[in-house]
Amino acid sequence: MRRDVFQAIADPTRRAILALIATEAMTPNALAEQFGTTRQAVSKHIKILAECQLLEQKKVGREIYYHFNPTKMVAIEQWLEQFKKHWENRLDQLEYVLINLNSKENENKNKSNDGVFR
Description:
Elements: H1 5-9, H2 12-23, H3 28-35, H4 39-51, E1 55-60, E2 63-68, H5 74-113
């Protein structure tokens, strides 16, 4: 069964595995030690991450090392981009409103100060 990247990152343990492997290649045993769990439990998560091509494996001697494949994160970045643009537009609108409010407040202060003794 082919999974997508979003299924893979939905699980907090898989996100933690990605964070660890992003800094250095690791074996399933090394990962299991990080989580205080069995190799079999970690292997299930690795399988899902590998199916989504977020991890690549490389055999070194008798050990298999898993490496992070950042190019597969592009789908996530593209999906998030639509929200980023939306929120940038909303924040720009808010900034415009706040600047106008500040200008009007300063204008009102200046008008009220015109009748004050100097």
